[in-house]
Design goal:
This protein is mainly alpha-helical. It has seven helices and no strands. The termini are far apart.
């Protein structure tokens, strides 16, 4: 299935490149962004549900702590009462909707990255990049920065908004940069376009929270 999707995406990249004057780099950005935007209705719904579940879990922490103290020597009863508390509060960490959402997203994303990595960009130029099949440090820094911004805003507009911790953010950015540093520029363009789509989703979620807070 994934192999067939990769072939479809590769053909779409060639078609988009033709429409964009032969620019494979532009095609990668455009198709990656279109895929991310197409998934926005689903991912926003899943993100809102995740935030709602985080709010429920945060409200249950005092009760969960009391249960841990009361049944610290009775793990079976602790598990039983914890599950009962979750059900009563409506907390469900795993649902068929969430699993289905992941099942829809993963093949599309995997096919896109598979097509980008298949050698389609070998020898292709884009902006200052002489060969999209090779790594590019400047592009890696830019994409890591966009990803870090998305992580920062995601924390800021999470279930319990507050000042994001700098240390985890810096560590996450460093790990992301380490992963991206040796990736091909073609893959970085796709990652960056997807990260921009993630920023749009975060902005929409933050705007919705702001509107609710002003009511």
């Amino acid at each position: 299935m994934i192999a067939a999707l990769v072939d479809v995406v590769r053909a779409a990249l060639f078609a988009a490149g033709h429409l964009l004057g032969g620019s494979i780099g532009g095609a990668i950005i455009a198709l990656s962004l279109l895929v991310r935007l197409a998934l926005l209705p689903l991912t926003i719904r899943l993100a809102r549900r995740a935030i709602a579940q985080q709010v429920i879990l945060a409200s249950l922490r005092p009760q969960l702590e009391r249960l841990r103290i009361r049944y610290r020597d009775e793990p079976d009863r602790l598990a039983e009462h914890t599950i009962a508390l979750y059900r009563q509060a409506g907390y469900r960490p795993f649902t068929p909707t969430g699993i289905l959402g992941a099942a829809v997203q993963l093949p599309l994303v995997a096919a896109l990255y598979g097509a980008v990595r298949s050698g389609i960009a070998t020898g292709a130029r884009f902006c200052w990049i002489p060969d999209l099949a090779r790594p590019d440090g400047l592009l890696a820094l830019a994409v890591a920065g966009i990803t870090a911004l998305g992580a920062y805003l995601g924390t800021k507009y999470g279930a319990t908004p507050g000042r994001p911790s700098a240390v985890p953010l810096l560590i996450g950015t460093a790990v992301t940069l380490f992963v991206l540093w040796r990736a091909s520029a073609a893959l970085l363009l796709s990652w960056g376009a997807t990260a921009c789509g993630n920023l749009l989703q975060t902005a929409l979620l933050g705007r919705r929270r702001g509107l609710r807070g002003s009511c």
